[in-house]
Amino acid sequence: MAMDTQAGHRQQRRKQRTRDAIQDAALTLFAGRGYRVTTMNAIAEAADVAPRTVTFHFPTKADLLFGADPFTRESLEARLNSRAEGESTLAALRDWMVATMLELSSEAPEAQRRVWRRRALRAQVIGSDDELRARARAGYYPYEQLIAAHLADDLGLPADALVPRLAAATSVTGLRELYQTHEVESSDAAESTDALIALVDQVLAFAEAGIETTR
User: Fold this and answer.
1) What mean pLDDT is reported for the chain?
2) Which helix H or strand E contains 168, and what residues bound it?
3) In this protein, which residues make up the domain named HTH tetR-type (predicted)?
4) What is the rounded CA–CA span in Å between residue 211 and residue 215?
5) Which domains does the chain have, with CATH numbers?
6) Distances (CA, A) of 152 to 61, 107, 172
7) What is the model's pTM?
């Protein structure tokens, strides 16, 4: 049984290494050549795998660009639903962001660099294409709805009230755009969890200030 478990773990690690190589190659090509003109065959060649291996792990180019984000809606929903009494939605949102960042930072340095490099490349690719920007924004809308519902509960307002919706949109937009700011584009900040957390605090302080003006 132990040998079977070890073999299973080795297989999972090999699978993850293959996925990492494919996604790293894809994002590098998307940023260097352009998302539209990059083919799955070119990605397979750059990753040194067969084309069918690419499509097995990532059926489409969109899966390569938008997949494998550690900041999942499911984990955010779980964190918001487990808030302590008196803990605000924005405080829980910050804790979720920080906890996810610190979890990433606990990995080996090479893995950390890979994650942040991917996010920077993804932001670069999406930011240069109107259609991809629109798709990315649509993908974040469920996060806005979730945060707005909890903010409305904090404020004693209906879930579709303007203030919680504005605050949620501000928070999500700010956190999304964070990776395209000058601070994160600099080589030092891109690998600094502390620098990123400071920017998260700026975003959420901005959203909180907007809520305060309506009280």
Assistant:
1) 86
2) helix 162-177
3) 16-76
4) 7
5) 1-65 (1.10.10.60), 69-215 (1.10.357.10)
6) 37, 36, 16
7) 0.78
